[in-house]
Amino acid sequence: MSTYFPKEPTPGWMVVDATGQTVGRLATQVASVLRGKHKPDFTPHQAGGDFVIVVNADKVVFSGNKLDQKVYTRYTGYQGGLKTTTAREMLDKHPERVLERAVWGMLPKNRLGRKLIRRLKVYAGEAHPHAAQVPTPMEIR
Question: Which of 55, 65, 62 is nearest to 19 (CA)?
Fold first, then answer.
């Protein structure tokens, strides 16, 4: 008897349009595809997922009052260097970071997670430079 152990497959490319999508619900589906949970030979310790291209990241929506109440924090490394930004300000200045941070929170915090987050490509507008990879459209449930 031998256990079937899949090799790390070659990743595919998927594109998703974020227009009108809720940030958290979109991020869960993107994180699942990055991990490879949509494939029948999912292995938790391998990067078996696909590359994901998210376009129109500036058109995502937040539910409730999160646009003004959700706060993103970062630390500069200096004393008293805690910087805070609301979701509205982040969506105006850097709309792609909103989705990147939401997806990163759903990935494992280890070498595998750092490898997976590099497979996420987020763009504020409609255009992206990955047309040569022929991405398939990802259906949003």
Answer: 55
Distance CA 125, CA 21 (A): 15
From first to last of the 141 residues of the chain, give the pLDDT tens digit: 898 888 888 899 999 999 999 999 999 999 999 999 999 989 999 999 999 999 999 999 999 999 999 999 999 999 999 999 999 999 999 999 999 999 999 999 999 999 999 999 999 999 999 999 999 998 887
Q: How far is residue 69's CA from residue 111's CA, in Å, rounded to a whole number?
A: 32
Residue range 13-137, CATH number? 3.90.1180.10
